[in-house]
Amino acid sequence: MDRLLRTLLFSSFLLLSLFATSSYAQTQNCSSFAFRNNQLFATCNPLPVLNSFLHWSYHPDNHTVDLAYRHGGVTDSDWVAWGLNIDGSRMVGAQCLVALRNSSGQIHAYTSPVTDYNTRLAQGELSFRVPRIAAEFTNNEFIIFATLVLPSGRTSFNQAWQNGGVSGQTLQVHAQSGDNMRSFGTVDFANGELGSDGGSSVTSRQRRRHVHGVLNAVSWGVLMPMGAVFARYLKVFKAANPAWFYLHVACQTSAYAVGVAGWGTGLKLGSDSTGIKFNTHRNIGITLFCLGTLQVFALLLRPKPDHKYRLYWNIYHHAIGYTVIILSIINVFEGFDALNGQKNWKRAYIGVIIAIGAIAVLLEAFTWFIVIKRKKSDSNKYPQNGTNGGNAYSNGTHQQQQA
After folding, report:
1. In terms of pTM, does the model score above 0.85?
2. pLDDT at 205
3. How many alpha carbons lie under 13 Å from residue 135 in its C-beta half-sphere?
4. Spatial contact of 68 and 34, defined as CB atoms under 8 Å apart
5. 58-66: which pairs have CB atoms within 8 A and are 24 or more residues apart?
6. Is 398 known as a binding-site position?
7. What is the pLDDT of residue 391?
8. 317 among the known binding-site residues?
9. What is the mean pLDDT of each run of 10 residues along the chain (403 residues)?
10. What is d(CA 387, CA 349) in angstroms, rounded to the nearest whole number?
């Protein structure tokens, strides 16, 4: 029994470690990426949203930049764009590099200056020279290669990047919510740094989004299901009593405490993100907070095992608990959709949930095996005797056993 508990706890630690370190893979996807033409770049940085990466080499002798812009998680029916805004910020005024699949089925790259919000990214000359531009599409990822002749006297610029759909040969407007409204920042080609619109290397909002995601995924999405597994399967082992109860309470209360912190960061993000709404994610989050709070109070009001209301409390506790777990997992995926670009986090969480589910299935089968074995042992210990269904303890022995 002790070995089983140690195995479960060690497995849980490994799963949580996998989830917590998955963000490192995105950085590795930048620095270790190999281009098909074996082209190398001196600098690479993952852009904070939209599953995008910027590689470049700056040549101070002629003030040019060779770059590659990668935009993953798209199809060849989409368009992608990256650009510099010399005198402004965000998309209006941006001098863009655009890639899409044209009517001939070829991947086409061209330049397009953005003059207003209703742009269709028509081809045109930029305010600086682009001697070379090309693009390719592979593994659901567009890559734009280009050489830019930077405006004299500057190496730091505002940048913006986007993606949208293509209908026929018409480029559709990009999404007006979520990460498509956050895809802007700064880039300094000389020192290799990216920043927000205000120039910091990582925006405080971006940090809060990541903290919010990790807190809620670990609490509601991992600890809650683990606590349910402890309660359902460990109590069948006599040696695990009352250890299973303390493990269950520890998991659920820790999940609630960490989840409240994640909920608070979500409220702050919502108040700081005027016009950006994730209604489903927000509504499920509010529901989870309310149900989780009810569960905490229910623990304080738990009747004794022999109390006449204990059956009704058990029904309530199990129904609310399983509802919270289901909604938690759904909302974690809603959160990943809001982050749009943290694909490695999503894959890691899917692996965690599959592992917890597999452990639950194995323990379910093992639990039933033990229950059936005990019933057979009890029936062999007290065999039925007599005729017409009579038994050895119809004289009152059975009543004494039940008592």
Report:
1. no
2. 60
3. 25
4. no
5. 58/155, 58/189, 58/190, 60/190, 62/149, 63/149, 63/150, 63/152, 64/147, 64/148, 64/149, 64/150, 65/147, 65/148, 65/150, 65/189, 66/41, 66/145, 66/146, 66/147
6. no
7. 45
8. yes
9. 49 46 50 84 90 93 95 94 85 91 92 85 93 95 96 87 88 83 88 64 61 87 87 78 84 88 83 67 89 84 85 89 91 78 75 88 85 74 53 41 37
10. 60
Cα 167 from Cα 321, distance rounded (Å): 46
- With a CB cutoff of 8 Å and minimum separation 6, the contacts of 141 are 70, 71, 72, 73, 74
| Token pair of 401 as six digits | 């056993």
* Block residue for tokens 């399983």: 322
Residue 55 annotated as lining a ligand binding site:
no
Q: What's CA 209's distance to the chain center, in Å?
A: 11
pLDDT of res. 385: 54
Phi-psi region of 388 (alpha: psi -120 to 50; beta: other; left: phi over 0): left
Q: CB of 113 within 8 A of CB of 124? A: yes
Q: Is 108 among the annotated ligand-binding positions? A: no
Domains of the chain by range and CATH? 2-20+204-372 (1.20.120.1770), 49-195 (2.60.40)
Instruction: For residue 376, give the H/E element and its range.
Output: helix 343-381
SS3 395: coil
CA dist., res. 43 & res. 155, Å (int): 14
What pLDDT does residue 199 have?
A: 39
